[in-house]
Amino acid sequence: MQRAVVSGMVDTKVETISRLAQWRIDNFGPCTYKRSEPFKIGIWNWQISVEKNRHLYVRLFPEPSRISKEQPPIAKFIIRVTTAGSNRRPYISPKFGSTENQSTKGNGNYSKTVHERLLRTSEDFVWPVDSTFHGRFIIDVEFLDLQVYSPNGEEASSIWPSDVMLRSSATESILRCLSRMLHESIDADVTINTCDGSLKGHKAILSASSPVFQSMFLHNLQEKESSTINIQDMSLESCTALLSYLYGSIKQEEFWRHRLPLLSAAHKYAIENLKDLCEESLLEDINSGNVLERLQEAWLYQLDKLKKGCLTYLFDFGKIYDIKDEVNVFFRTAERELIQEMFQEVLTLWKPA
Question: Structural domain tally of the chain?
Answer without folding.
Answer: 2
